[in-house]
Write a structure and sequence with these properties.
heterodimer; A: mainly alpha; two-stranded antiparallel sheet; 18 helices; globular; B: 692 residues; alpha+beta; seven-stranded mixed β-sheet; 24 helices
Amino acid sequence: MTAPFGLIVVGVAAGLSWPLGRAMTWAMDPGEPQGRHRRRLETLLRSVAGRSALRDQDWKRYCLSLLAFNAMMFVLGFAVLALQPVLPLNPDHKGALEPSLIFHTTASFTSNTNLQHYAGEVSLSYFSQIVALMWLQFVSAATGIAALAAIARALSGRPNVGNFYRDVLRASLLVLLPLAAVVAVVLVLGGVPMTFEGAAHVTTLEGVGQTIARGPVAAFVAIKQVGTNGGGFFGANATHPFENPSYWTNLVECGCILLVPMACVWMFGRITRRVRHAVVVFAVMGLLLATGASLAVRSESRPAVALSGLPVEATGNLEGKELRFGAAAGPVWGALTTATSNGSVDCMHDSLNPLTSLVPLAGMWLNVAFGGVGVGVINMLLYVIVAVFVSGMMVGRTPEYLARKVETREMKLALLALLVHPLFILGGTALFAASSWGAAAVGNPGAHGFTEILYEFSSATANNGSGFEGLRDGTVPWNVATGVVMLLARFVPIIMPFAIAGGLAAKRPAPETTGTLRTDTALFGVVLLGIVILVGALLFLPAAVLGPIAEYLAAATT
Amino acid sequence: MPTTNHDAQSAKLARRQARRASLFETELVRTATVQAFVLLAPWRMVRNPVMFVCELGAVLSTVVVALDVVRWSAELSYTLAVTAVLWGTVLLANFAEALAEARGRAQASTLKRTRKRTLARRVTNGGESEVASDELRQGDVVRVASGEVIPSDGEIIEGAASVDESAITGESAPVVREAGGDRSGVTGGTRVLSDEITIRITTGAGESFLDRMIALVEGAARQKTPNELALTVTLAGLTLAFLLVTASLWPMGRYFGVDIPIPTLVALLVCLIPTTIGALLAAIGLAGMDRALSANVLAKSGKAVELAGDVDTLLLDKTGTITMGDRQATAYVPLSGVSAARLAAAAMRASFGDLTPEGRSIVALGERTLGAGAPAPARDSRVIPFSAQTRLSGLDSADGHRFRKGAADAIADYLRQAGGVVPDPLRGLVESVARDGATPIVVAEDREALGVIALSDVLKPGIHDRFERLRAMGVRVVMVTGDNSLTAAAIAREAGVDDFLAEAKPEDKLEYIRGEQRAGRLVAMMGDGTNDAPALAQADIGVAMNSGTQAAKEAGNMVDLDNDPTKLIEVIEVGKQLLMTRGALTTFSIANDVAKYFAIVPAMFMLAIPQLAVMNVMGLTSPRSAILSALIFNALVIPMLVPVAIRGVKYRPMGAGRLLRKNLFVYGLGGVLVPFVGIKLIDLVVGATGLF
């Protein structure tokens, strides 16, 4: 059951993403004329959102609303976590959290990252888990979907990109909530607990007392997987038997990682009415994902270096794996969860073979193999703009994207947005690696310790949230640094593409001729793939060499 | 006719070729070498962010050299070598720009020679005074007699003259310029051969087209074009990214207890940032202007040349562009019962007195069809010239026969007056000729109609192929003609244009351009008359003929010195080539980085992590030799690509997909592979010195 696991997950998710993309387009961009039921639904949504949802917005107002809304959510989340001791639904009497951890956790969940410097079952009450974190898991994912829908509208040439509040409601109530509800029910059927009772205190057969943490796990896990959030109810995330009891729940949860990010590509294609272009983008993302997953499985089928020469060497690397899922499920999940910005984990990434750990890292560095809900496609748009610019010149015309000229302003914004990524990953790693903040926190010496630091900043910057672990990152410098990085790396790459799309929308569209570079051909797919790989490799190869590659080479030659 | 035209064309091309300097002419190279050092000034370098960073790196590395000298460090030879190559890189980049500039200046100076100071006779309140040509102001009126040089650009307000414009166009045959009409513009520096003309000066000293063009190719007035600016921003962004990569390596090295030497970091940075395209970017732009100029087109801005590559719709006048200037007799169509020979003879006689090209072509066709039996002009016959009243012309022979030719209705009137009858089949004949795109001329002898001469527009040789090429580029060709739509449709079909504008008035042209622009298309057109001016101004690319009126020249954004209506096609190709060259070299530059990484990254950390030797796929001699070789390759690529930058990437009209595939293969894949070979070869040399 090893090799097929990845195939089943990716295949089924890709198959389901097509109808889901259709449904999401219906939900996010109903267009005119609307049927009677849909009109009633829209009226209902408007009454929920109030007056603010009535007016159509241009891209600037939309962005302002997006930022204002997320700021409000940040404050709300922060307040709930800070007031945890006095708030209800706290059967196990969880105490107050350290302030920098509250900041880090709120930033983490607001930015759809879900990097956790705490263990949920130890530190958080049910109220905090549901009202602060689960709530943020919904609205942060909805923010991503809304942003993509609005950018797609702008790229299709509409001056008004919609209304943020209306969009965020549509995304929450019409897309995420129904999907999460279905998944949660499936998970409950699969054995995931769903209860508000406190931890169970039991006496084991050996007569020892044991506390078994539980709670409203199924609901939490559902949105965690569907909304590329990845923050687990338990510290051990999807390796915990209550989050992910069996092979079948593992299959469902793993598929859920890909479902909405994949469907977002189709939604983008439908709103811009460029489905063929979306097919090309989907194919490029799919190819990157499949390559990553198969490399991970392949590399992880070799035994850990520590076991070489021992009688157990015949098996693959089983360290840090959940054996109930099989040996391949861990690396597949690891590749998928980092290529998208999900960040839930199904095995210990710290224990992966050195070259395998390059796969999750590369996934976060590129951050475009479907990426986060909504924002994955938005990230890819930046690469598309660069690809269009370079190849557009090569056909002897001023570069155009979706019939609009790509000029200085677009390139400036696209590059600034793309620069955010290496700035925080390399800058953060360099700062911590050279100082005692990093050197004192690593769990291993040498290249492996370097990878731990690199991984943490990659995860924060890519809004991924998975942990390499082994790093003592629950300290004030780590909390503050990664907290700030997560927020900036979340919102800057959303606003810049908005500005690009808004600017493009204001330009006069040019008709397409035989002299125009087409973005819906396999050839353009090759160019796009080349640009993504080349840019990614050029930016991160030195860091990769110092971390996983050096570790691999050192182990291989000793 | 076609052959002579072809000869003239090839002669013109040969002349242009001669005016074009060879790539590395000694004189140019010398000028460029000196200029390369002048360009080192930081305030000039800062215009080019990539090379500016490179220069800063060289300065930083020089400081390290100074420190090494003070400490007499063992590293000195290595530091010195890196620093030398860094400065070499900057100088080579400057050399590329300076060479392109020098070529432009050489082109301009041939033009400049025509702009010598001359004395002008300025007309003032009835009198005349002599002033120097560079003191003339706009609005001054000067008189120029035969043998004198026209002092500045202007418009003839009185008289007509033949003018020798060879100084500007290279065309030796004199042209006629006259007051009023569309041939009233004269250019400063050209010489009047006969007669005297009075000219109103239209541009002040230093502002003529020539002045502006010279300023543009010399780089003095050069502003970055929109795409050049966008590319500069892109390259600056990439530079910033690689700055980040290299800058973060030093602290990362500290984690491993490695102190990476500053020159090594600078070497990595300079290898990674797109120096190749950064160094050649200015040269590519200058060379584009230069190519436009060697096609004898004066562009008012670099932006116009760049924009030309984007043209979607091309408006071309039918007459003189798609067809030969004049209509020619192509067939005799006799009425039934009339022999073709009789019709031909009558048509010839009716045209003996008609000296217009049309009349001559009728005689010529008759001579061809009748051979030795063709009638000769008789001395005592009487020519009936064309008149507006009768709208026909002809000849009364000495033996009393009257030959007439004219439009169908004019001949019908004539026959009725003469007491003859208009045969019924004539109308059908006339219509069928018109449907084929020809103009029917009816021939009558005495009181009898004989048949019809078909006067057709003759397509210029090779025009069909040129349109085919334009279509491959994605350009729509629209023919503009005063003909009725029946005739226009026939010619349009024959020439292979995509659309036509029949019975076109200047307003129609303007409206058509606006319509195309509303649909988002970029329109180019060519014109010469004053009534073309609004359309020239409205069009995105308006090319005015040099022989045209001042108004037309002011309205357009380019002036064609050859007055060649098909020049637009060349202009479009120059624009496309310009962008393609930028794209191709950018791709090449970035693709080069892959190999450089394989050379430098393992070399940097070889001491701390010896296992990285596996990454040394090229088998380079030593870490230092590897870094130096990559850096030297990076510098040498610049002069190697100067020919590509200046001549432009080869452009053949084809669809966007094929173009992209071809360029990706050559410059993308080539860009990845070439440096592996190049660096290895350089390493063999560097390693052989035994110094590193």
